[in-house]
Each structure stands twice: as structure tokens, then as C-alpha cells.
Amino acid sequence: MIVILSIFFIIFFSSIDANAHSLVSRSSGFGNGFSHPILGLDHFLAMFGVGIWGAQMGGRRIWSLPMSFPLIMCVGALIAITKVYSFVFVEQIIALSVIVLGFVVFFKWSPNELIAIIIISVFALFHGYAHGYELPKANDPISFIIGFVLSTGLIHLLGIGMGCIFNKFHNKNFFKTMGVLIAIFGISFLFKAYI
Amino acid sequence: MSKTLFFICILILPCFVISKLFFMPSSEYGLFESGMYNIFNNYLLLLCLLGLALLLLNTKKNMTHLYFFLTFIFFYTMTLIFIDFILEVIFSNNLDYLWGFDKFPLVVLYFLSIFLGLMLWFNPIKNLFKFLSIIVFSSIISFHVALKDIELFTIKSLINFPGGNLLITLWLGAIIILVLKLFNKNNIQIISKIYGSWIIVIGIMSAIFSLIY
To answer: Shortest CB distance from B198 goes to which of A136, A141, A153?
Structure first.
């Protein structure tokens, strides 16, 4: 029975679509939307940082930060879609968001909830703008939207989960290490954005 | 009670469907199967279903789930029966001009996801709000199904396209609820609030994008 089930699942998960008539585009649909925040390390680290920061502060802020981030990101994406305003220095500010989030995790800064939300909102606006800019080019934009929102949320949850686990064991070194790593990557992104 | 329900959901329903498909000629089950596929094929529907499952999770009595089930069936069937009247209201108020009638089956789902997201944010404990969510959910799903395959609703429809949708919605909903019951209640509350914001964002962005492009 186990062998039959294993064969079934191997075949089920290894099957792929026929590519004979695929439309060639950088962003096709759900898969591209889902992988956009994961494969883009700048987005990944910023969202992971938000999750860890929320878990580190504890209380209501565990869910209020990851809840506000996608909502403000949505505003940024809508600005990009509607083209009502074009942001400048998007890459640089995204890199800056990674640096700032690295430092706040490192120093375990625990501000008022509103201040924390305002800080991440500014960054979320630019992250959303970057996602929204890709949207109209996608072959299936609605699936692209669903993909990137889901993966953004899952990265938050990963950050919250890891933060909560290490908070439970009072492992301060974890937060310091993560903070430093995130900030170093952020600095490298900033250099890349200028070069 | 929950173990029996779990048994029914996991084993009997799929066995019933598979045996039904196996013994019937393809010309008769084609619509039923495409109805089932319609639910699996639609990310938004699946996300809304997960949202509804998160909403219905915290019920104290198991009997309440039965009332949820009956409410769902009632409003699902009623919307299908009165679809002509609903369409007349839509056409007379020119609601179809805003997004275009071809996008209407999806647009209703965007609004459903926004509604369920808001409900998840407030995370109501009272059963009244849960029933309200079920009524809205079943009516909109039914409306979506009717727009995808408009036919005169008879009892035979339940083994055609609408029946396939109904069976899979109930089956998936029950499985999601039973699986989520294994998790810690506090964690589920946090996840509900975060998930609520995701589906609101998806709903708003999809609606505005569809309006522009």
C-alpha cells in the first residue's frame, strides 16, 4: 500500500504542464508571483525581519505588524498599477528597509506599536510599489497578485515562528546573529543599487 | 462525533464520488466533474474557503456545525433557484457595466474575499456573525457557479455542475476545519487575523486591477 501511494505521489508531484504553447514572459502567473518575494532576497529579508521584530516585541505586535504590512503594500502596488505617482530610489529604499530592520532586530528595539507600524508602513509602500510594477506585465495578473501576497504572508509567518521559538528559549544570540546578517545583506543591496 | 465526521469526510465522500464517476458514462458525469474541478482550479475560491473554515472553527457545540451545513445548502440552492431574479436586479441597476459581465463571476469572489477578510479581522465569537458569513459565502459561491454554467435549476442540477461544486466545497471545508482543530486556539486566532489581511489585500488589488485593465 505504501509503495503504491509513494508511486502515486511521486508521479503526481513530478508531473509538469506541457510547454508546447507556453507564452514566453518574465511573469506568468501564480508561480512567478509566489517566487518573486522568495527569490528576491531583499524582499525576503525585509519581510522575514518584520516577522522576527513582531515576535521579538511580543503581545499584540506579533500580529499587528504582519497584518499592516500587506495592507500598506497593497497601497504601494496600487500606486504602481494606476501610475498616479512614480516613486524614485525604490531599490535604495528597499535596501535601506533591510538595513533598518536588521538593526532593530539586533538592538531589540521595542517602540510604541504605532511607531513600529509607521516605520514598516513606509517600507511596505516601496516593497508594494516594486511588486505592483511587475503586475501589468504578467500573463495572469490576478494569480500573480495571489501568489505574491501569499508568499509575503508566509515569509512573515516564518519570521514570527522562528522569533517565537527562540524567544521561548531566551536565545538572545539568535536575534543578534539574525540582525547582523540582515543588516549586512542590506548594506550589500544598497551598494548594488548604486553600482 | 468529530471522529465520525472525520471518517465520513475523509473516506466515504471521496469513495462515493470515485465510484460514481467509475460506473457512469462520461457524457453524464462530465458536468459534475468539471464542477469539482472549478473549485480546485480557482485560487480565490480556495482562499475564501480557508477563510470561512478559520471563521467557523471556534464553535462550542458540534451540533452547530450541522446547522452551518444546513444553512449553506439552503442558501446555495435558493440562490440557484432565484438566479433569474438576481440577474434581473443586476441588469436593471447596470451593475454589470462597472467591471463588464464577463468578469462578473470573478468580481463577486473579490468582494467575498474582502468580506471574509474583514470578518476574520474582527473574529466574531457570536454564532450570528458566523451564520451571516455562511449566508454570504454560500450565496456568492452559488451565484459564481450559476454564472459559470447558467441552467434552469432542477433537482437534477445537483448531479451536474452545481452538484460537483457543492460536494467539493463541503468536503474541502469539512477537512480544513477538522485539520485546523488540531492546532492551538491562540495560534489560530493570530493566524486568522494575519490571513484576514492577506485576503483583503488580494480582494482589493484584484478588484482594482480588473477595473483598470
So the answer is: A153
Please name the residue ranges forming H helices in chain A: 2-14, 30-39, 41-57, 61-82, 90-106, 113-134, 141-168, 172-194
Which pTM value belongs to this model? 0.82
Tell me the pLDDT tens digit for each residue of A15-72.
Answer: 554 444 444 455 577 888 888 888 888 889 999 999 999 988 888 888 888 888 989 9
Q: How far is A139 from chain B (nearest CA, A)?
A: 12
Contacts of A18 (CB under 8 A, 6+ apart): none
Model confidence over A111-167: pLDDT tens digits? 888 999 999 999 999 998 988 887 777 778 888 888 888 999 999 999 998 888 888
- Residue A68 near residue A124, CB atoms below 8 Å: yes
Q: Which residues contact A130 (CB under 8 A, 6 or more apart)?
A: A43, A76, A80, A90, A91, A94
Chain A residues with CB-CB distance to B190 below 8 A: 62-63, 160
CA distance A111 to chain B (A): 21
